[in-house]
NADH-cytochrome b5 reductase (Salvia divinorum), 319 residues
Amino acid sequence: MATFFRRLAKAAPIAFGCQTKSAPRLRFGALAAISGGISAYYFYSSPNMGYLDELNENSPPQAALNPEKWIEFKLQEKVQASHNTQLFRFSFDPDLKLGLHVASCLITRAPNGQNAEGKTKYVIRPYTPISDPDAKGYFDLLIKVYPEGKMSQHFASLKPGDVVEVKGPIEKFRYSPNMKKHIGMIAGGSGITPMLQVIDAILKNPDDNTQVSLIYANLTPDDILLKKKLDTLSASNPNLKVFYTVDNPTKGWLGGQGFISKQMVVKGLPGPSDDTLVLVCGPPGMMNHISGDKKDRAQGELRGILKELGYTEDMVYKF
């Protein structure tokens, strides 16, 4: 397990999270903030039944997450994935699934001093796991550690055996197989994480014929998150196409250069259609450029490149 985990870190040098802070020189500003309505799977039993001595073998497993309660998850292992990114694996009961839908994230919290009444204050941040939602007994987070990031610094200080408090899930976008013929994706920075959830769900389902096209923007080639994994997936799955663009290309770079443009979208994504859905996730500057940003938890008005190219609000989802 440890060897596999380290290989994953080397194969996926990523920044991570539903919400991140501004990075120096990143034209599009802060990395993606992800929000949505709270949704979860509940496992009920009648109060008149008391304690159950036996469970039906066909009963679905209880989820490890709870949307109403903070639960401690133990850090099993962490490795350095890049110069400023760490990969964390948290463990729980191996008979349980985490309880995530595709695509959804979880909320984490850490103590951050006390208020005037002497009660503990917390810093709270959402993150999107990159592990399979159906995996039992563990979940993986990849987190970019910012010098002044209260939550990311807390994660960086954790040692194996330490715990983090988690609540959730927060549902962002409910994916169902073959819901659209073609899904386009535009991601910037750690905005790749919810896209990966959807991509993995499509590619692991042999009955899902959805075509996926991804445009992924970063500052430099070294900042491309999950590149080796994305390259492997696209090479082995003809229904996944990936195009990278960077602000500051290195010598020999063969991908796109600069901001995501209209030409990139026209060439790389499916055109406006009832059978098309475009998912967008990235820093606020990128969101405004591509689709218009969200308004709190609402999708907000469609603006930017996608509107100019003829897409409508029901063809676009903003994480």
